[in-house]
Design a protein that fits this description.
51 residues; mainly alpha
Length: 51
């Protein structure tokens, strides 16, 4: 039973990521903004490069 839950979870996560990517692409953006937010936070804190 547990392996099936893992497989279903991975499938759901993959579907979510694919749909999110398609949505962002349809909106004409390449990033959700989270990466930019994290990078800006690191820059403000002077903690160096994350990406």
């Amino acid at each position: 039973m547990l392996p099936n839950l893992r497989k279903d979870g991975r499938r759901a996560l993959r579907t979510y990521h694919e749909e999110a990517h398609e949505y962002l692409e349809a909106m004409g953006v390449s990033d959700s903004g989270v990466t930019s937010l994290i990078q800006a936070t690191y820059d403000l804190l002077g903690s160096g490069q994350l990406f």
